Each structure stands twice: as structure tokens, then as C-alpha cells.
Amino acid sequence: MTSRDPYQQLIENKFQRYNALADLAAGDTMLYKVATEQKGRQVRVDGKWVTDFASCNYLGLDLHEEVIASIPEMLRKWGVHPSWSKAVMQPEPYLEMEARLAELIGVENVFVIPTATLIHHGLIPALTMKESLVLVDRHAHNSVQTGCAIAKARGATVETFRHNDMEDLEARLRQSGDEPSRLICVDGVYSPNGAFANVPELVALARKYDAILYIDDAHGFGIIGEDPSPEHPYGRKGNGIVQHLGQTYDNVIYVGALSKAYSSMAAFMSCPARLKDYLKLHIDTYVYSGPVPTAAFASTLAALEVNRTQGEQIRRKLFHLTKRMVDGLRELGLAPDSANYFPIVATPFGKDADAQEVARILMEEGIYVTLMLFPAIARNKGIIRATVTAENTEEEVEQFLRAMKRVRDRDGNLRGAA
User: How far apart are CA 143 and CA 316, in angstroms?
Assistant: First the structure.
């Protein structure tokens, strides 16, 4: 038998995707970079200071002095990482985190696990059984799709439905027959444009067909919340999309991430009391994962307090900055896709090469964004995605708009889709 390099064989077997990624890395001025310093939302990349519109620390709590100051005492008490499995033992701060998160979003219980990805990979299979039907929105996050794939490998039937298409979803529910359970999986807020899931209709369909609605609100938690008004466009408290759209948690499992708005490595899932003991035993990633890092105990608890005392002010600032960016792009004749003025501002530029050229110009102008190209999205649907945070400044937003004006003036082909 001829000896072959197994690594090369792997690359050859996956050559189309590998080549696309290799080409992207070779031409992308904003991929696999290393930041060597940070001052506010200024970061040094390749020896040059650039303004960061690529991070998702929406509330700016990664730089908040009260959050930073909360960590040393927790480290002294618990070390850098208590390494028990949650099935064996958990540090007391876990209980306080879970109690306060449950109170904030308005549910009986939550479980905290280090990441939303771990939750999806463990919880979705735990909510299904052999011959269960799982219906997943075509645009749901990759980690949700993977959780569904694990459920399928264990015997569930998994189907996708058209994005936010309630007629397609109901048709599939109507045809579902006597499956032992039905699970509908969606994002709460979709990236890259900040569009909301149609939660009121999704909830109604879940109740009509005795299904569970599974909502991944990784982006929405911390930003949007209850009682939206002209004074509070994002709503109050940052307690998520279910509260923002005036719904209850009947038939709903809610997943929130703390890594974005709260700048902490942790995530949580709602847990109805009648499911608590069952889920503790059946979520593999709960039983077999360790706890979050100790710093995340402290930063989460401190962030919850900052949210209570300063959250509305922070969210108003964030809305103001985002609105200025979106309105400014539209004044330039560009076409930002930014639903609800959510702080994800996506501007399409079509051809991948055009989007890469836009990224090059922005880098020259000292602006760092997320460049979204194939294979992350469809080929020649290139997007420049800017994420605004409360630690950005008005001058940084104006700097971004000046850079985008240069893009517009550089070449009519780089103006984005109108």
C-alpha cells in the first residue's frame, strides 16, 4: 500500500471549501489578524492603530471599570478555574448567577454553561427523542444547526423551513402527524442584519401544535428588552426578545449568551421547574463540562449590577450611535441592512472582490470591521459588517462614515446594493 499523508488527504477531500478559505485568507485584510494593544475601541493591528467595529461587546462592559474591578477578589476566593463537573459540584457563585438571570428574564430557573454552542449541542438533543420532529429556520446559527444534526444522528427527523416564513413552518407542523415531540429552532436576533424572529407567531404556532419553541437569543440578550418606547427604543432591562415582543415563556426554551452584551464567557438556558431534574441528567454538555472561568462569575455578577443601575443610559447611547451610523450610510446613498437599528450594521457590496476592496480601503482609513464572504455566506454576496458598542465614540462613528464616503466616491461599482 502506498503511504499517504493523512493531512494532505484530508485537505484534498475537502478541497473546495479549503481552497475557498485559503483564497479568502490570502486576500482578506481583516482575517486572522493579531491585536497587540488596545485603548478603548482603538486596537493596534500590524503596527497601526485602527478603530474597532468588529467586536460584539455591545454594552462596552469589557472596558467598564466596575466590571474589571470585580474580578481580583473572586480570583482570590476561587482560584482561576474551579474544575469540577457540574454533576459533581459547582461553586456557589453559579447559584447567584442563575438566580439573578432567571429573575431578569422572568423564568423559574436557568442553567449556566460556559458557551451557547455547548448549550445547543447538548440541549437540542436532550429535548428530542427517536422520531421527534425538529424544524429549524434556514438562517439559524451554525451552532444551532449542529445541535439539530446531533439530534438527527440520535433518531430525530430534522427539516429546515424558509427563513421567518410562518406559512412554510405551519404547513410542516400540520403534516407532522403523531411525532412524539416537536421542536422549532430559531434565532432571536439574526446576524448579520439584526432582524428579529417573528416570536409572537412562532409562539402561537408552538402552542397550537404542542411544540416547544427553542430561541437562541445570543445577540438580543442584554440589548433589547421589555416595554420598548420612543424614550427606550431597545426596551428596558435588556431581558431579551421574548420580553421585548410582549410574550410569555409558555412552550418556550430561551437561550442567552453573556459573551456579547455582558462580555463574559458564559451562557444560560431557561429551565421550567418540571424539566429541571430531567435536563440535569440528559444534557451531556451540562453533565460533562466544567464551570465557567472564575473571572466570568465576577464579571457577570458585576455586569448584572451595572445593567440594573446604568443599563438604560448605556442602551440609549448605543441606540444613538447605531442610528447615526445607519442614517449616515443611507445619506451617502449606500444601503445598510440594519433592522430595528440593532447595533449590527451590514452593508452589502455584492462581488466578493468588491467587498475585499472595500475592506482594503477601510483598513487604509483606520477602520476595522468584519468582512463576510464565501464560504461563510453565499458566493458574491459580500458584506461589510460593523458592530457598534457603547464604548465607541461619536467621532469614531463619523470616522467610519468618512471612510465609507471614500468607498462611495472611489468607484460607482463599490456603492453597494441600493
Answer: 31
Residue 296 to residue 123: CA distance in whole angstroms: 22
**Is pLDDT larger for residue 412 or for residue 41?**
41
Are 358 and 349 in contact by the 8 Å Cβ rule? The answer is: yes
- Three cell numbers written together for 94: 453559579
Res. 382 pLDDT band, cuts 50 70 90: confident
pLDDT exceeds 90 at position 206? yes
**Beta strand pairing status for 212-216 and 182-187?**
parallel
Reply yes or no on whether the pLDDT at 8 is more than 80.
Answer: no
What DSSP character marks residue 337? Answer: B
User: Pick from 241, 218, 219: which is nearest to 228 by CA?
Assistant: 241
- Phi, psi (rounded to 5 degrees) for 397: -65, -40
Neighbours of 65 (CB within 10 A): 9
- Asked if residues 342 and 322 have their Cβ atoms less than 8 Å apart, the reply is yes
Burial profile 369-401: b = 16 or more Cβ within 10 angstroms, e = fewer: bbbbbbeeeeeebbbbbbbbbbbbeeebbebbb
Query: What gap in Å lies between CA 179 and CA 127, rounded to an integer?
Result: 13
pTM: 0.92
Between CA 199 and CA 208 the distance in angstroms is 14
Query: For cell 421550567, what's the residue?
Result: 272
Q: Which of 294, 269, 273, 290 is nearest to 101 (CA)?
A: 269
Q: Please give the C-alpha separations between residue 91 and each of 67, 84, 98, 325, in angstroms, as whole numbers.
A: 20, 9, 12, 43
Q: Which parts of 106-190 fold into alpha helices (H)?
A: 116-126, 142-153, 166-174
Coil, strand or helix: which one is 35? Answer: strand
List the grid coordinates of 321: 450611535
* The C-alpha cell that represents 15 in the structure block: 478541497
Are 271 and 109 in contact by the 8 Å Cβ rule? The answer is yes
Q: Is the pLDDT of residue 7 over 70?
A: no
